[in-house]
Amino acid sequence: MTPAARVQAAIEVLDQVRSGKSAEQALTGWGRRSRYAGSKDRAAVRDHVFDALRCRRTYAALGGGETGRGLMLGALRASGEDPDALFGSTPHAPSPLSEQERGAGHKPLEGPEELDMPDWLWPSIIDSLGDQATAYARSLKTRAPVHLRVNLRKVTREAVQAELARDSILTQPHPAADTALQIIEGARRLRQSRAYLDGRVELQDAASQAVVQALPLRDGMRVLDYCAGGGGKALAMAARASVTLFTHDAASQRMRDLPVRAERAGVRFQALQTADLERNGPFDLVLCDVPCSGSGAWRRSPEGKWLLSPSRLRELSAVQSEILAHAAELVTEEGVLAYATCSVLSQENSAQIGEFLVQNRQWRAVFSRAWMVPDGSDGFFSAHLTRI
Ligand SMILES: C[S@@+](CC[C@H](N)C(=O)[O-])C[C@H]1O[C@@H](n2cnc3c(N)ncnc32)[C@H](O)[C@@H]1O
């Protein structure tokens, strides 16, 4: 495909996203209809689409609208390219620009438009992050790095780096966690590499690993991952200590990939239904990696930035406090209740913990930390609570 044909494909996908499809669905549909597209074409179209979703407001301002054409026109103008050299250039290119399109567009306004943030949310971001708010918003305009978690039970970080390098996958240690590597070249080869296939490395953001590294895990503990989802943190916990691992998720189908991933990593676990939690408790450590806005991970999932609404945020806060209240009942007298979000909003982080401590005077926070997107990982928050 020519560069212009890739832009036309991105325009079509972005129009479908605008009419309600998720980016993944729209890209999969385009991929199925476009058998002629090679792997490089698919990657390029995907990059165009996700870049446009990360920078939706600035591209729409520069391109004169939120249609696929408006966004890609804005993208070209943002990178200083002449759109007329591409629109109408080849048979599969986007059709030539109209006079109206040529004259449309404005320089993004300073503030949330220029920072690609929803207007309604920007004050909460400033409240939460203070003078780091702008750096956070700017980081979200860029692509997320690819991080690996090294399974230290199977291999050292240095040894697996050397092995990956032989498969032309170049990495460097990430400072957030002693298990973390950042891929600097060859990420697309990872899934075929021996180190990945036999569970010595897993894909996991460095801050997500740091959340697990901070947990007071010890051999012999009974540990419950209350919101296990795909099991990223459950597997990371099992790799740090010989624990008896239990997993749970309100939507148990979210754990469907966990058995295969656990087998690759050589981890045993028992999945529990909600009704079975009490009977199997109490647990020495209960991790609640709660559903949240995902605002720490919007580089990776930029649609989330535009889909979040005040009412959705209120719903999420309510679910988070319900989870904390229920999970607290499952912790042993001396045990630890750990809370984590991939959010940067204090409403979901410190305020949520503060509210729990006001309602539950017998608990106190013994640890609390935030990881920031400008430091090169997803944004995360975690707190550990114990009974007084
Ligand atoms: C942030 S994700 C968990 C990610 C996972 N821990 C990991 O590291 O891969 C949050 C999970 O919480 C689950 N969830 C939502 N509401 C819940 C509830 N009331 N109780 C337990 N889990 C819930 C969701 O289905 C989702 O899988």
From TrEMBL:
<protein>
    <submittedName>
        <fullName>16S rRNA (Cytosine967-C5)-methyltransferase</fullName>
    </submittedName>
</protein>
<feature type="compositionally biased region" description="Basic and acidic residues">
    <location>
        <begin position="99"/>
        <end position="110"/>
    </location>
</feature>
<dbReference type="InterPro" id="IPR001678">
    <property type="entry name" value="MeTrfase_RsmB-F_NOP2_dom"/>
</dbReference>
<dbReference type="InterPro" id="IPR049560">
    <property type="entry name" value="MeTrfase_RsmB-F_NOP2_cat"/>
</dbReference>
<keyword id="KW-0489">Methyltransferase</keyword>
<keyword id="KW-0949">S-adenosyl-L-methionine</keyword>
<dbReference type="InterPro" id="IPR054728">
    <property type="entry name" value="RsmB-like_ferredoxin"/>
</dbReference>
<feature type="binding site">
    <location>
        <position position="289"/>
    </location>
    <ligand>
        <name>S-adenosyl-L-methionine</name>
    </ligand>
</feature>
<feature type="binding site">
    <location>
        <position position="249"/>
    </location>
    <ligand>
        <name>S-adenosyl-L-methionine</name>
    </ligand>
</feature>
<feature type="domain" description="SAM-dependent MTase RsmB/NOP-type">
    <location>
        <begin position="136"/>
        <end position="388"/>
    </location>
</feature>
<feature type="region of interest" description="Disordered">
    <location>
        <begin position="82"/>
        <end position="113"/>
    </location>
</feature>
<dbReference type="Pfam" id="PF22458">
    <property type="entry name" value="RsmF-B_ferredox"/>
</dbReference>
<keyword id="KW-0808">Transferase</keyword>
<dbReference type="GO" id="GO:0003723">
    <property type="term" value="F:RNA binding"/>
</dbReference>
<comment type="similarity">
    <text>Belongs to the class I-like SAM-binding methyltransferase superfamily. RsmB/NOP family.</text>
</comment>
<dbReference type="InterPro" id="IPR023267">
    <property type="entry name" value="RCMT"/>
</dbReference>
<keyword id="KW-0694">RNA-binding</keyword>
<dbReference type="InterPro" id="IPR029063">
    <property type="entry name" value="SAM-dependent_MTases_sf"/>
</dbReference>
<dbReference type="GO" id="GO:0008173">
    <property type="term" value="F:RNA methyltransferase activity"/>
</dbReference>
<dbReference type="GO" id="GO:0001510">
    <property type="term" value="P:RNA methylation"/>
</dbReference>
<dbReference type="Pfam" id="PF01189">
    <property type="entry name" value="Methyltr_RsmB-F"/>
</dbReference>
<feature type="active site" description="Nucleophile">
    <location>
        <position position="342"/>
    </location>
</feature>
